[in-house]
Amino acid sequence: MAEPLKICFVAAEVAPFAKTGGLGDVSAALPRTLHRLGHDVRLFLPFYSRIDRQKHRILPVEFLRDIPLELGGRRYRFSVYTTEMPRSSLPLYLIHCPALFDRPEMYGGGVHEAIRFALLTRAAIECCQRMGVAVDVFHANDWHTALLPLYLKTHYQWDQLFARSKTVLSIHNIGYQGIFPASTVRALGLGEHAAKLHQADLDSGIVSFLKTGILYADVVTTVSPTHADEIRTPEYGMGLDGLLRKRSGTVLGILNGIDPEEWSPATDPLIPIQYSAEDLEGKAFCKLALMRDLGLDHHPTVPALGIVTRLVKQKGIDLLRQVLPSFVEKVDCRLAALGSGETEYEQFFAALQRRFPGRVCFYRGYNNELAHRIEAGCDLFLMPSLYEPCGLNQMYSLAYGTPPVVRKTGGLADAVQLFDRGRGEGNGFVFEHATADALGWALGYALDVWRDRPAWERLVQNGMRRDFSWEKQAGLYVELYRRLGVS
Ligand code: ADP
Ligand code: GLC
């Protein structure tokens, strides 16, 4: 093997310690896979107060205690704790700064949020300095850590340890850009380098973390090839498309993988019975158990639809609001929905459950075990997102023999192909336009195929046999890191 790479990976979420969505899954699985491939990975996460010290064996790093860090004239102190990533010997480094992270929620808090993630970013760099690691690639993720390239190219430019370091910024969700009032800038500790921030933004009274990252990262990636094209269009670029088009040569998409140790029906300890593509008997039992536990009337020939999602606009919940009430009214089906988020969406699902007792169950909240059980126990999975940089649930549902109904966008378009009944090809149901008619069509077609048992079995097999594991995708990141090293 070529020389192992030294990679510093910084993120606001790492599962299972801190996760609200797919960022947490990816920031756990990608570093773990890179570590397994033999690379030297330094993984950093804030020590949020919600991280359970009892549950995980968390120890202080003796030589990284009480480190002073000045941000915009304020002196903070942070210490570093460490714990092993589950099923891996990869250490996770937790940045402990109670002054900033001692709060119940991971996100929110206005301007304080900017300072919190600026500190995480600076602390990660400082730790690499103190560990004496000549980092090949600093890999920042989403707006939270997007100031990293600028800090490295200004504040830490003096340090020869990083003379050859390159930076990658991965955009997991362009809908969240970390936009703060320009008055925040002083608190970010950029000093005279603040002049390098986007001037027109500052003139209009704002500073954008994500935009700064796009300006200064050596390479910008996003989490699927289709989304890499999409974000360079006004329709999906959320105001950053012009800048991304300018950087076109250095913008690319790498599809996320899924962690087979976490999401495989053959080994999943969270589902009632394991099963595989060769023997699907267990899946029928998983459905029975799910229906029973959710209080839904069970019948094997009645299709069960599943949803697991953050309840936000991005996920196409408005389309579901238009389609589901009349669909459930007309079609004999069951619906198991798990999620939390915007109140109006939560109310919609709660009302649907009240209207169709025994047919619809809504679990409001976050529940990892139930997420696994829905993937295993349903027949169809719904993901009509308006935009989806990658999306993991469609890949989980394919692996669990639960064909997804998706809109053709981002990673949904890359992972799911419309089932062609004549040829027996394809693995799910794909519709193009974000309209009720288009979603209604896809659901209608899915039900037709459901009734055609040989076709359905073929569809399920096609999905279960496709390999979405991280090994291959992590290899694409390694290639990218190496290309950067020689450029
Ligand atoms: P996003 O990151 O935009 O939320 P992804 O599909 O990439 O979308 O990832 C979502 C991840 O979060 C999946 O692992 C999914 O199972 C999980 N998830 C989302 N909502 C819930 C919930 N209410 N309970 C448990 N897991 C959830
Ligand atoms: C984001 C995106 C999702 C993606 C995840 C992990 O939250 O919304 O599509 O799968 O990040 O990259």
CATH fold naming of the largest domain: Rossmann fold
The total beta strand count reads: 18
Number of domains: 2
Query: From the alpha-carbon coordinates, what is the Rg to the nearest angstrom?
Result: 23 Å
Structural class: alpha/beta
Kindly state the percentage of residues in helix.
Answer: 25-40%
Please report the number of helical segments. 17
Q: What would you call the quaternary organization?
A: single chain
Poorly predicted runs of 5 or more residues: none
What is the CATH architecture assignment of the largest domain? 3-Layer(aba) Sandwich
Largest sheet: 10 strands, mixed
Global mean pLDDT = 97
* Bound ligands, named by name, code or SMILES: adenosine-5'-diphosphate, alpha-D-glucopyranose
In short:
The chain is an alpha/beta fold. It is built from 17 helices and 18 strands. The strands form 3 sheets. Strands 1, 2, 3, 4, 5, 6, 7, 8, 11 and 12 form a 10-stranded mixed sheet that branches. Strands 15-14-13-16-17-18 form a 6-stranded parallel sheet, sandwiched between helices.
Chain-wise SSE layout:
Layout lengths: L5 E5 L11 H15 L3 E7 L12 E2 L6 E5 L2 E11 L6 E6 L1 H4 L9 H21 L5 E5 L6 H6 L12 E6 L7 E3 L17 H5 L2 E3 H8 L2 E4 L2 H6 L10 H6 L4 E3 L27 H14 L9 E8 L5 H14 L3 E8 L1 H13 L4 E5 L3 H10 L2 E4 L9 H7 L4 E4 L2 H6 L13 E3 L4 H16 L1 H12 L5 H17 L1
Parallel strand pairs: 1-2, 1-7, 2-6, 7-8, 8-11, 11-12, 13-14, 13-16, 14-15, 16-17, 17-18
Antiparallel strand pairs: 3-5, 4-5, 5-6, 9-10
Alpha-D-glucopyranose binds next to helix 1.
